[in-house]
Please model this.
Amino acid sequence: MSPWFLCCGSGRARARVIAISRAGGTARDFDSWPAGLGDEIELCAVQLPGRLERFPEPALRDLRVIAAEVAAATAGLAPLPYVLFGDCMGALIAYEVMVALREHGRPGPAALAVGFYPPPDQPRVERRYSDGPAGALRGRLREVGGVSPELLDDDEFFELLTPTLRADFAVFEDYRHRPEPPFDLDVLVLVGRDDPYVGAADVRGWQRHTAGRCDIRVLDGDHFLLRDNTAAVELVRELAIRAAGG
Model:
């Protein structure tokens, strides 16, 4: 199995979900998903360099390099219709994975699902943290949440994780969208009702990137609702079932 994927399935799967986590995240962020996806859907979570078992590898800072690697790695997966899912920064990566797949004539996803991030042609960066003072980076993580205060207070832990965090911030800070023809597939966009950073108005532009349907769903929770929101998993599951033919 490719180091780029951590897969879980029953062997009876009719479709697959390829899931990409947010900045600072890992493939393990989706450990609870197989129970909600059921036996018909295989989960393959993307494991980027610089985290968990790939920690010795340097984290990548170029979004298109990451996307090209993930796209190439899909060739090693057993043929199944699949849904590509990206959470926050993972949404940008997922979009560029589709671009790379199309450029190289490889099979693309049957549908795209993204969460908690605006469309790729809508700039979001207001301040750089990837190459700024470590204190500013730590302060930004405290502001956004998602990392426990206890871990952020642990200087040794934070120093160990800083290179990967800086790389992840660079991924979206340095990203510049290049116009592409719309994709011919349905897009599901998830938004948290109490998300202070990304609201329903911020994600409407995903419609520009597909000739298919763009379905925006507002769910109970904040920017990190995927941690305990079973409704989000069920929506992605429904998309994958449709990809499998019903």
